[in-house]
Amino acid sequence: MSDFAQTVKQQADIVKVIEGYIRLRKAGAQNYTGLCPFHKEKSPSFSVHAVRQFYHCFGCGVSGDVFSFVGKIENVGFPEAVRIVAQKCGIPLPKREFSSPEEAAGARQRAKLLELHEAATAWFQEQLRGPEGAVAREYLAGRGLSADGIKAFRVGYSPDSFNALRERLSGMADQETLRLSGLFSSKEQGDGSMGPLYDRFRKRVMFPIANESGRVIAFTARTLETGDKAGPKYINSPETPLYSKGQVLFNLDKARTAIRQMEFALLVEGQMDCISVFLRGIQNVIATSGTAFTEQQVALLRRHTSQVVANFDPDAAGANAAAKTVALLTEEGFTIKIVTLDDGLDPDRYIRERGVPAYTAALRGARSQADFLIERARQMFPGQSSEQKVKAMNYLLPHIRRMPQKLSRDQFAADAAQKLGIDSAVLREELRQAALRRQDHVEMRTSSLSEVERVLLRALAIDDPADEEARRAASDAIERQPDKFQHLRAFPAMQALARRQANDPMNVVADESQRALLAETLLAEVKPPTENEVLSAIQEIKERGIENRQRDLRALIAEAERRGDFAELAVLTQQKLELDRVLRQLHQPW
Ligand SMILES: [Zn+2]
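^ thats the input. predicted complex w/ zinc ion below
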């Protein structure tokens, strides 16, 4: 590990860093637990050791330090993980922390694109305040957006010009970078080359889209034109090195704290809905931007909560995207409830016309996903004919199979049968079968280490010089008489630990399953063992080893007697006597 990485590791608090991704709860003097971000689960088996600064999942067995966590969750290599942790902790990066020139160039390019978006955002805000922005201000006032709200979401206005923004930004970056930013368009020329850049967004209200850290990476732009010239009502930034539509959740940067506190996320479709609801004090709200959820978005959200209340538009298109999102979230183990507002209102209008208390009451009245889907099946296939019932059931079966918990599947199937009025035994059996299929989530692995093995491991992992004697007793025993310990399950870890210098114990054990044994043991530890505990553990391990060999010898002796093999019998008896002697010696005081 480089000096820089070492410095970062010393200054970073793994609990704080991990809390930036998932919710943790204090579970002991030095432990925190939460839902594992690396496998699907409903009860927490992911633990973080605050003192020793490592994480371990009892469910899927992953473990490691702060860099390994960030590397895994961000899907990046070690140098990038170090960089990310350094940034989170406000530690300035040294000039060279990139593994390759391409990586360095990529990082420079992203930094430049962020700079361009920041400058564009500020400029759009300025335009909104200026004389040309009057028409946009009027529109926003009509949507009930206050000056504070406009400021909080950095809403702006792109004037009716093909080159105003280009002129503004052209001094900041070369043509290629400006083109990559997605803020400009150009037309393909006759010879196949791209023509000059012109402003992509014109005469539109500009809503910045921020990444999870609150940096602007793209825009949604609403037209203020009417008639033939208007074009699409909303246009978005294209995919750029900064922005990929399926990987962003609108407003997650502002909502994440509230999502953790309230332990659920409110999911709406439109950005305007999201802003409107947020500004009225319901701050755990995020938006999908009108399309069905992607797996990346699910992964993004899972770091903060596994409970969602979805409030989608009641129109057909909305209901379709909603059904897809509901299906995906269910499959991913989320608990999801669905709100349908009266009179087909969208969240923005509902909260403006009926007020916050009415809206929160509607949220409290959210239906379970099963109720929502059954209701939808009844609307799609109304009537009491058995043909309609079969269609409704066929619509529900895949949803039932997708639910990760068997209990909820059983309940869902029972509800569906009852509410659809299915009394045919055949259909009931079909539903029951759907509920049976699908494996429940990973079983918890249990440690199979004996108490004495755990004492040794803990002693070997001691870092405090005050407890040096206990550590030395353990490492000497293992270094001097490895044959007495090699039958132990955690022996490879013990050997690695016995030889370590001043290193972090979790870093010394390279084998993942051995590291998992160590992690489990350390997470269960209250305080390190004393020298006496270590010595008696060593003695017990030796005794048990001898007792095992005595047992083997007794069996061999009995076998030799049966065969009448007196030569063999003499050798074995001699060995047994020797063992008895060793065992007696062991029992003598130290
Ligand atoms: Zn896990």
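The longest strand covers residues 216-223.
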